[in-house]
Structure formats: C-alpha cells, structure tokens
Amino acid sequence: MRLCYVAYSPLNLESANSVQTFNTLRELSKQLGENLTTLVPRFGNEAPPPFPTRQLARIPINKLSRLYKSGRWSYMERALYAERAKRIIASVKPDLIYTRDLVCAYRFIRADLPVLYEVHDLESRHPGQNKSARLLETLKQMDETTLKESRGIASLTEIFRQEIIARGWQSPERVFVIPDAYDDAIYFPRAKMEMRVKLNLPRDARIVTYAGLTFKYRGLDILLRAFKQWNDSSARLVLIGGREFEVEELQTLARESGIVERVIFVKRQTSNVIAEYLAASDALVIPDTVTDATASPLKMFEYMAMARPIVCVDRASLREILQDAAFYFPRGEVNAFAAQLQNAVQSAAQDLGERARERVGDFTYARRAEKIARAAASALQISEFFENSEI
C-alpha cells in the first residue's frame, strides 16, 4: 500500500494542528517507510522535520484579507495549494491520499483521486471565522460531498462517527475512529515538588493549571470566574500560553475580579517545559472545547499522561476517552466548576489521576499511526471489493 499524506498545516509546532500533524507523520514514516509520501508546506526558517518530506509553497492569498476582509481568501489559498499538490500526486501515483484538510480532500475527490479524510468537524459549523451566507452554503456542499465520496473517513470520536452514519454520508465499515494522541517521550509523570522548585512555583500552594497555544473559544473566562468562586487563598491558577492580546484580556479580567495576585501567567513554552508545569500541579483543567461531538483535544491526552486529577467540561466526546477518570462540570456552570476544582486538589483525588494515566497508553502517536495504517488498508480493501462487485 502506497500512502500519500497531504498536510496543509505548517510543521512549525505553533498550533495544535501543527503538533498533531508533525508527530503523526513522524510515526507514520517509521511504520510505512518508502511506502509513505508526505507533502507538506515549505519550511520557513525552521529546521526540516526528522522524516522525508516533499515541500510545496503556500501562496499567501489570505494576506489579501488585510485589504478586503472576506472568509473566501483562506479557502482560495487552500484550493490553490490542493491544485498544485495534485501535480505531485500524479507523479507519485499513491493507492490512497490521507489528509485532514477539507479543501484538499474535496479538490482531490473532484479529480477522482482516492481519499481517506480525517475530519475534525464540519467546516460549515466551525466557529473559527465569520462566514457569509453564500460561503456557508458552499462549505455545507463541500462537507457533504467530501464525507460522502471519500473512500473512508477517520473520525476523532465515536460520537461523530455515529453522526456521520446517521446522516447517511458513509456506511459504518468506512468510518474509522482515530482519536488524537500525546508524545510519550515528553509527557510522563515527574515529582511534583522537584518541578515546583525548578520552576520557582510556591511549594505549599494548591496549583491548578491550564496549558494551551491559544485561549480563544476555550472558556478561560469561565475558568477565572470559577477560580474566584472557589475562593481558596492558598490556591494558585497557572495559565500557560495564549497570544499576547488574549493574555492581556485575561489579566484585565483577573484584576477586575480581584484575583490577579493568585493567577500566574506563563508565556508560551516548549512541550518539555509545559510537561514540567503540568507535573508541578495538583490538578489540570479543560474549561471548554472548541467543538462538541468532535472534541479530542491534545491537552486531554497530555494531561492524562501526567497522572494528575483532571477537571473538565462535561462532553460526551471527552467522556468517551476519560470515562470515570475525571471531575466533570456542566458547561458554563461556574459554581459546579468551582466545586470540582476544590474536589480535584484533595489528596484522595490522586486516584483519578492514576486511573487516567492507566487509560492513556493506547493513545500515543505510535499507536495513532498504526490506526491510520490499518484504516487505510481497510478502506482500500473495501473499495476494491465494491469495484469488483460492480463488474
């Protein structure tokens, strides 16, 4: 089986998409070797990744949004990337193309190329940008066409897999559940006090931590309100990451709430340093998720690997992985959130952290790559069966 992985996210590790793509490709390349062709955006000043790649420049059409705001510029940029990628694909002649970008998948399908599409949500309902009514209708048509006509679908959750099947977009045997993952070489338990000394964090405080590259749509305002409601003078809230304007907004909210002296803002860090902060914590939090049925945040798996109690918004997609190894609260309910923060820092709560650690072993990137390879082989076999049946 010859697989071509087409990535649109740059491999600069500056977004969750980038982190997931980089680590997935690293492990896939180990497993498939010369049978894998990876097509990725051309590198900037970053060092090339530790696996073979073929590079394709992204023409920065989206920069035109500075002159005229429109959601279409981004899709035009992705469409041009896909059209140029088709030329390389034609020379490689893979048995199957794997991509998580809707525009690429749609363009490949329109060219009658075989696609296994990793869907992270319906593009038409993702909150990432404002969409005109006309653009929204276009995206709905692209969503439906791509989900119907792909050779197979990789869903991050069983919840969304069932939605795809219920809508009649794919038959059950063509939809594979492949959740996100974590890097087990980075995220593993460490001694709490040792990490606090190293990071100059208060040794006797009750520390709860949130880590994320960006804060938008993640419910950090709810977290600050819940932390204030908790009203524990010995507690400290550590917020890692965020873009400058996001951090400034939260600092303002913390000041207005009278808790700014108990909130520790940490600028973006490497994954290794983030893991140290997680290890230094008593509890880790997921206040909200960007999507619902498709939610499979990288931080959930990274938190689980650290063997610390987790407090998270109650989502069926998160329960699918965490099960009873977390403290849940209803979305937006500050009082319930505050109560669970208090529960999570109790010594008895450590059992839930250990339980989460036990369950995360199946979600390394190596195991994720195995799932992708198996799904690709199954999708090809199913396609061949139906093609032969039609003869």
Describe the structure.
The chain has 391 residues and is α/β, with parallel strands linked by helices. The chain has two domains: 3-181 and 365-389, Glycogen Phosphorylase B (Rossmann fold, 3-Layer(aba) Sandwich); 192-363, Glycogen Phosphorylase B (Rossmann fold), CATH 3.40.50. The protein has 14 helices and 13 strands. The protein has helices at 16-32, 72-92, 102-110, 133-149, 158-166, 192-199, 220-230, 244-257, 271-279, 298-305, 316-322, 334-344, 350-359, 365-389; strands at residues 3-6, 36-41, 54-56, 96-99, 115-119, 152-155, 175-177, 206-212, 235-241, 263-266, 283-286, 310-313, 327-329. The strands form two sheets. A seven-stranded parallel sheet has the order 3-2-1-4-5-6-7, sandwiched between helices. Strands 10-9-8-11-12-13 form a six-stranded parallel sheet, with helices on both faces. It is globular and about 65 Å long. The two termini are 23 Å apart.
